[in-house]
Amino acid sequence: MRRLVSESIRHLTEAPLSNKDSAVRTRQVFGALLLISTPILVTYLTLWTVFAPGRSDRLLFGVAFGLVSVICLVLVRTRYYWVAQYVFVGSIFLLATVIAATAGGTLAAYYGVYLVVIILTAWLSGWRAAGVVTVLSILVGLGMGLLMQAGRLPPPIGTPMTAWLTHSLIITIITLFSYALSMRLNGALQHAIAELDERKKLEFALRESEERFRLITSTVSDYTFQTRVAADRSVEPVLLGGAFEVITGYSQTEYVARGGWPSIVHPDDVKQDVEDMARLHENQRVVSEIRIIAKDGAIRWVRVYANPMWDDQANRMIGINGAVQDITERKLAEEALRQSEQRYRAISSIISDYAYAYRVDPDGSYYPDWLTEDSFRRVTGYEKKDIDPAYAIYHPDDGGRARHDVEETVRGNPISGEYRIITQEGEHRWIYIRRQVERDETGRVVRFYGAAQNISEQKRLEAELQQYAAHLEQLVEARTAQLRSTKEQIEIVLNHSTDAIALIQSNGDIKTMNPAFVSMFGDQVSDCIERILWVLADDSHRAAVGNALIRALQEQEPLRVETQILAQDGRERDFDLAFIPVELADESGQNGLLVSAHDITNLKEIERFKARFVQDALHDMATPIMGLTTRLYLLRRAPEKVDEHVRALENQVQHLRNLLADLRMLSQLDRGELTLTPAADDLNRVVRRVFDTYEPVAISKQQTLTLSMDENLPPLLIDGRQIERALVNLISNAVNYTPDGKDIYIQTQLEGDSAVFRVGDQGMGVPPEDLPRIFERFYRTDRARKTQSSGTGLGLAIVKEIVELHKVQSARRAKSGRAALLLSAYRAAVCCKRLGGWFLRNRIERSPRCKADDHHEPADKQGRQQWVVA
Hints:
The protein is of the alpha+beta class. It has 24 helices and 21 strands. The strands form five sheets. It has a five-stranded antiparallel beta sheet. The relative contact order is 0.03.
């Protein structure tokens, strides 16, 4: 009983912790109130009967109130709490009305019992119910007042003691209500303070949690989302948190502007996404894996967790909460694993290798555990039961090594290796065995496994490959040597070729060239082929070569063009240029040009010489023939002058005879048929004989022919007859081209180790521009052609050939001091080449002496024209 009372008091004074707890606590308070108020009221009514013995009917109210209390307790137990409240408040209201009506109505102090009823109602049912009880109390008091005025209300039936008892009850009830109310207020205040502290703690924890959430979502590959779904099922993103931008590449603004989630779903997964949305509209949770297309075009796999937010009243989805997880790497790994498994299944279904396992005992002994017998039989030809001992199938040279490797594996050091075995048919095969060990929790080897792979074909291929590699190496070395030899030969040909050769790329750059190309065109053309135009003689040649170069590059057809270049020595030289398209053997695969330049200057000179030779020969032969024709005509017209005409005809015939003799001699010289007969001879004697021959001719022309000979000249090793022919040509030229009355001098002199022969005259001379050509056959200057001289134009050419022939013969047969002296004299003559030939010089005003060191002495004081032979 004490425990029941204490529990009831605790329920009355303890504040609720929550709304749910408040409802439970109210029911508990109501039950406690019933348990406490019922004994108090029963006691009050009993004592009231004691103090007022004549009013024992008050006990009936106690019994009735006890029954009401029992009924209310039953209703509370059966969860009819509000009914129990109304019944209890109604019974208390009726009891207060009876007390007030029997105690004097509104005039009595007992009318204040309604205040206790109103407080009790507010406590149990709320202030709305208390308001209703207040209105009823006022109306009942009004009724009692009206009844009292009408005299219908019975007089008070109480005594002073009953009045004291009633007031004591009211005071007790108010005191209990005040205590319970103060205790509940104090508990509520403490609870509010505790809740406030707890809320602050929760807010601080929430902020920390939010910071951690932001930190985590910024680093993980997942993101959360929240969307709003309208009545027309349109979707509007509300929240996109976490790694959304990392996964999709879009900002939230770009994502919304693009069209949201449907715009990034992979086309092949659109159907699945539509089905997922339909399930969400059916209020079903969705977990789905689909592909999306990121901003950079990458396809990513994501797992979507979506939960619908449902409106029960509208019976529709109003939003979606969920998360998206990036599972691209897992999908790629799964795909790789799936492909690997497929490959493994395919390979394992066709391989012929075998595997085995051995059990290892604690003492180190080992026994067969299992063996893939079918594959073992395919590799070795043996059955498992036929192998005893286990190393019998190994080649004798490999059995010991296999045993050692197995024992090391049993010790915990697995060794793999290649071994030879002998099959049941006696065939030798190579196998590769890979071994692994299995240990228990203590680290002891309890089993080892082996996988044998048949590598016989691999070994055979390795042997063949090794043989092939050795053979290939020999072929490569031979080919390399051949290519090196060919390259060296080509380089020798290119480096020693007189033709200029260069390989040109399609853009005009020179890829390679030989030394002759640099020698012909100079360093300025070493970079690009178009610079070859810089060294051409004139614009016409540049245009011809440029057009040929462009056509060869564009039309890929070989072209040839003859042109002239300005050589580094300032002379023009003729070249035959060939442009040949080729395909370059390099990584570019482009076409190029092979440029070949052949120096045809000599050929062109021969052609020009032939043209001039024919022209001059025709001219020189036509002159005497015309003279013969003219004299024959004059002879017919004037026979009386027959002697004069005959003499003229004889002169013309002699001229033709001389011309033919000179041509015959030159022909012999060209063919090498003219041989010298050198002998020691006196140059002065030969000169004197020629002088005696032409002295009468000079006297007939009133010319002064002077001879000066050096008596110190030693004998020379010469062909006197041919030297005489050369001197005749020189002296006859001087006589023929010297005007009448002029001087001619002939001189021999010993200068050092050189014997020098000079012929000087006062004739017309040779212009400087004609000096390089005076030794050409049939060449005569314009001034010489205008004279009446009967020269053939072959004299100086014959002189040159005779002297050159003496120099060659002397070089071949030089054994004496005389030959050496003659050769030295010819070497001295070479220095005169730059002024007119190899051994002749024509000077109008001066004639310096020519020595081997190219030293020039003062000229002849009279300024006479001199022909010098050294």
